[in-house]
């Protein structure tokens, strides 16, 4: 009897290896492979139809893809910056509150507790041109007498999506920046007061440098979030009208599951991943740099 | 430069009053040290002068102005904090020049002022480092440099040496004193360390529980403490205190030990008193105390010795109370050895047993 004897370390690692392969490795390799084929969900045998870099070339020369790419970057830039500013303001105000701060902090978290799908539905209703809250309010106040097509006009639709995105995620910045505010030592702020700083100068020269690491952590987390934005957009506008709010992942989702062109969708997906990776690396670099400024960590 | 006056200054946190109506006049160019145990209100008082704490009652004057309602930046003061309070994201140069930059001075003026301050405190080689790359003593020097570049009217020091090790503390103490001699500025300095207070101050303000107990020159508060608190707080080792009763011209202590009433004190027969004597004024016979007019002798058994080199501290029991005595030109002493001690009565103190106040006439 010559039984196959595996070394003990391999036996011990095997469960982890099997699980990781099933969950991560095989889908990853499969999707990467399929991006080099003309794989269509409706014709399973097409997965063996090797097309080389055709899908990648097609994506990189596709106007629709680049439009979605640009829109995603736009959403990322606008939403992240506004969320940061609003979150900073929110955190500064909450930090000044002396009574009921705990309650306020909990309330700040509320928007994060809802599923983005529900948030999408909520804002779809709020911005609805006939029965929506916004138009209703504007008309009741006499500010306008027509139904503003919030989700139908291309620019307004993008605005509405950004609005919803900011509503859900400003508190992420708020909470993290608040944590940063709590961590600031009191002495340098007092020294700044004695050194002649006004409230604004204290904030600009002392508070803000201390907060930067926290801001960059929030940016890194949120940039990943926004770069993969799908649910809110899918519910509110479904990428419409006429693809004016089409983002990378709504485009990829549509290509893969509606048009069934999975190979092409995977190729676009791999290109899009770089966007997320780029922003993450960028913000982590900024984070390390700002920590170094403060003499923290190497 | 300016004088500082505190007039009936009160600090309250809600219903809790922590500083009780204190009055203090500080002359132009004077080095005043506020000293007292933790929680005595000395830092709070300093922070009220700085404008970092609101003033609940009374007035603070700096120069000829009442500064109660002025923010710190309009008081023309600078402050050195216990934890240095440097800006960690700025280099030493930027830290030093920060207040001038805020005051919108020209870069050339800032550079000049920073260079002068760096020269005074020998920080020149460190100018381009960040606080994180400095040692504790260097950071403290930067904090002091930041204070001096502005030529403020008053310097405030809040326990600046507490975070340094003993050797560095001694060294920085000398530097602060030199700095004061050079700048001739008004300084208010807070510490809980009576050695720092004694060595630095022109005048010492001893505080306890939000009250000023005594104000005086270092020698004055050392030689003429107004009460037992000041007597034990100032001086190291602390003054020995013995409870006794006046019997005619003598004091009687527990166990029948008797000593003459020290000269210069008003006592009544039968009065309960506290007798105070410093270790420096109670020494074994033959060990350096000159024979004076008012001497007394007691015999005590030595329980413990602490040799310090030039002198040895002897712990002995007198009338049931542990007392510390000093032995100059020390010889080895066995534990339990009985020795005759001389007490220099001219230098002894009598306090009221109940109030602790001095009975000096």
UniProtKB/TrEMBL annotation, chain A:
TM ranges: 12-33, 73-94, 106-127, 156-184, 205-224, 267-284
Q: Name one GO cellular component term.
A: plasma membrane
Q: Which residues form the ABC transmembrane type-1 domain?
A: 69-283
Which subcellular locations apply to this protein?
Cell membrane
User: Pfam families of this UniProt entry?
Assistant: BPD_transp_1
Q: How does it sit in the membrane?
A: Multi-pass membrane protein
Instruction: Tell me yes or no: is Transport among this UniProt entry's keywords.
Output: yes
UniProt entry keywords in alphabetical sequence: Cell membrane, Membrane, Transmembrane, Transmembrane helix, Transport
In terms of PROSITE patterns, this protein maps to: ABC_TM1
- Family membership: Belongs to the binding-protein-dependent transport system permease family.
Can you name this protein? Sugar ABC transporter permease
**Which organism is the protein's source?**
Thalassospira profundimaris
TrEMBL record, chain B:
One GO term in the molecular function aspect is:
ATP binding
Segments forming domain ABC transporter: 4-234
**Record-linked Gene3D superfamilies:** 2.40.50.100, Nucleic acid-binding proteins (2.40.50.140), P-loop containing nucleotide triphosphate hydrolases (3.40.50.300)
InterPro entries the UniProt entry points to:
AAA+_ATPase, ABC_transporter-like_ATP-bd, ABC_transporter-like_CS, ABC_transpr_MalK-like, ABC_transpr_MalK/UgpC-like, Mo/tungstate-bd_C_term_dom, NA-bd_OB-fold, OB_MalK-like
Matching entries from PROSITE patterns are given as:
ABC_TRANSPORTER_1, ABC_TRANSPORTER_2
Q: Which GO terms describe its cellular component?
A: ATP-binding cassette (ABC) transporter complex, substrate-binding subunit-containing
> This protein's superkingdom?
Bacteria
One Gene Ontology biological process: carbohydrate transport
Give the record's keywords alphabetically.
ATP-binding, Nucleotide-binding, Transport
- NCBIfam families of this UniProt entry? PRK11650.1
Q: Which family does the record claim for this protein? A: Belongs to the ABC transporter superfamily.
| Name of the protein this chain belongs to | Sugar ABC transporter ATPase
Natural source organism: Thalassospira profundimaris
